[in-house]
UniProtKB/TrEMBL annotation, chains A, B, C, D, E, F, G:
Listed name of the protein: Co-chaperonin GroES
InterPro entries tied to this protein: Chaperonin_GroES, Chaperonin_GroES_sf, Chaprnonin_Cpn10_CS, GroES-like_sf
Self-association state and partner proteins as the record states: Heptamer of 7 subunits arranged in a ring. Interacts with the chaperonin GroEL.
PANTHER family the record matches: 10 KDA HEAT SHOCK PROTEIN (PTHR10772), CO-CHAPERONIN GROES (PTHR10772:SF58)
Major localization listed first in the record, in broad terms: cytoplasm
Amino acid sequence: MKLVPLGDKIVLKQLEAEETTKSGIVLPGQAKEKPQEAEVIAVGPGGIIDGKEVKMQVKEGDKVIYSKYAGTEVELEGEEYIIVKQNDILAIVE
Amino acid sequence: MKLVPLGDKIVLKQLEAEETTKSGIVLPGQAKEKPQEAEVIAVGPGGIIDGKEVKMQVKEGDKVIYSKYAGTEVELEGEEYIIVKQNDILAIVE
Amino acid sequence: MKLVPLGDKIVLKQLEAEETTKSGIVLPGQAKEKPQEAEVIAVGPGGIIDGKEVKMQVKEGDKVIYSKYAGTEVELEGEEYIIVKQNDILAIVE
Amino acid sequence: MKLVPLGDKIVLKQLEAEETTKSGIVLPGQAKEKPQEAEVIAVGPGGIIDGKEVKMQVKEGDKVIYSKYAGTEVELEGEEYIIVKQNDILAIVE
Amino acid sequence: MKLVPLGDKIVLKQLEAEETTKSGIVLPGQAKEKPQEAEVIAVGPGGIIDGKEVKMQVKEGDKVIYSKYAGTEVELEGEEYIIVKQNDILAIVE
Amino acid sequence: MKLVPLGDKIVLKQLEAEETTKSGIVLPGQAKEKPQEAEVIAVGPGGIIDGKEVKMQVKEGDKVIYSKYAGTEVELEGEEYIIVKQNDILAIVE
Amino acid sequence: MKLVPLGDKIVLKQLEAEETTKSGIVLPGQAKEKPQEAEVIAVGPGGIIDGKEVKMQVKEGDKVIYSKYAGTEVELEGEEYIIVKQNDILAIVE
């Protein structure tokens, strides 16, 4: 059982607090929009989204910084995921 | 008697609480936008919606995670349905 | 004397409470946006609305579920009507 | 002295309360947006409005139902008028 | 010293209260948006404004009814002017 | 050391109160949006801004009336500047 | 480990208070939108962003004035960065 995102949507899995500490990402407190590090689990096909061509620029396994503001949390088989639009991904951590 | 959605609209039937538990979807409390698992009952024809070409990407019988925020609940012959736009569907559960 | 809607506007006549009960539509209480069953009385010509081609997809006599949120109620010769945009019609009941 | 509307604007003259009663229009109380019956006094030329082609669909003398929400009231030589955009006209009463 | 408006902007000079009375314009009290009679002092060149072709439809010396809502008042050499966009002009008074 | 504006942005230097008085501009009190006279110090290159062609219509040395609402104040080497978009410039004072 | 911005996003590193003082930038207090001087650390590839061609106009090492309003702060390996869209960069300091 897996999540297959539509359009420009991307399924993320938030990195554990321990891992976050290892990677050195510290998130300053900001109530409205908390940037976070996550791993890309699944990527929508892109295509014409809202009348505009969208090419997907991240791939499964990428570590990314995303803006949590518009994301939606789901839990599938005991694992928590976040579904965001590609536009909510700010940068890839290489 | 059945619901025939217009445009990019989709008729969903929410999966029962029991079934939801079996599939392992747990919905974290979030007042404004509750993601939910549902089955696709009927799919609008797509086409030019608000001046933009929309291709329908889900089909009858799909299990989907949707964002309930803009959905509209109706009850027809004792069954409850939710009508959403395709854009409110986040992912297909396979 | 009749109402001739402009553009993508549609004149609806709400089905009576009794009839609503017969058709099995029950409307859950939701203050902001009450979906309702109605009969289509008159349909605007469509065409270029706000710079975008709109084709009308309902016809006189259709039973429809509409979102009352943006509708406007008028009463003509003792009969009450609701004028909505086609976009506010969610599904046809067949 | 007369009002010559620009673009997609239309000058209306509200029908008198007596006449409104005769035509059978009753306006349910709704603070924010009061639909009203009025006569079309002057029609703008249409054309490219905000980058979009607008064709005028009402003509002088039409009785119309309009949404008063965005209209502007002016009084010229002792007569009161309302200036609305064509988009605020819901239907013609024939 | 004079004001040369850019784009679709127009410099207006409000008609004096006396003159307003003579022309018969009475402005009903409406806190948010006060329609007013003014004379056109200078007209911007129009052209591509915000990606859309705008043709100027008023000329110097026109008496116009404008919606004061978005206008900006300036005073130059002891004279007060209002700068509005053409879209804020509702009608020409002929 | 100088400020080189990007896109449709323009660097302004507000005219001193004394000079403002000389030029006769008096600014009526309006909390939200204070029009002001300023000199153009540097002009962005224009070009495609937000998908739309923007041609710059002011030049270094122009005296302009701008709407301060969206401007950003910076101070460089003891001099204060305001950076605005061309769209926030209402008129040139000639 | 480094941040690779997507689309029109740019990674900035705020200049230290000491350096800010040296360059002479003083930031007047403005609660909602604090302009700031920063160095460009990494620049997204640009391309079609939200259906519109965006060309990147800053490069690594540029000193820029940005509008902090929509920026997102992250900390990677003990260093703090700000990720902004190119549209939030007002001017380059040369």
